Inverse folding.
């Protein structure tokens, strides 16, 4: 998906428990990106040192400028759904269904 003429990269997913709000968690994620050398310019889908996305946050639905949960294009992104399905295939993505089912729809 996106720019294919770039160095290889790895996609993964992590599940965690937090007391942070979605906005606070996003802020931490953006700081981690910056500390690891991510430079946000206007290159869409270009090479980057790291790219962290907040895909889901429990069963919350949020649609605000700068943060949409579940992730706006999660249902289109095999590279995000596959690692998420490895963690929790039965996870219900609010408004989309179970991760395994959403992933199966991409086949």
């Amino acid at each position: 998906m996106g720019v294919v003429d770039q160095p290889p990269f790895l996609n993964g997913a992590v599940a965690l428990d937090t007391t942070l709000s979605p906005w606070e968690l996003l802020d931490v994620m953006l700081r981690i990106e910056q500390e690891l050398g991510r430079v946000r310019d206007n290159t869409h889908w270009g090479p980057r040192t790291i790219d962290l996305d907040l895909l889901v946050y429990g069963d919350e639905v949020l649609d605000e400028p700068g943060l949409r949960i579940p992730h706006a294009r999660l249902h289109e992104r095999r590279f995000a759904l596959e690692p998420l399905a490895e963690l929790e295939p039965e996870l219900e993505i609010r408004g989309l269904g179970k991760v395994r089912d959403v992933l199966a729809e991409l086949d």
Summary: The two ends are 15 Å apart (CA to CA). The chain has a mean pLDDT of 87. The longest helix spans residues 22-35. The longest strand covers residues 62-64.
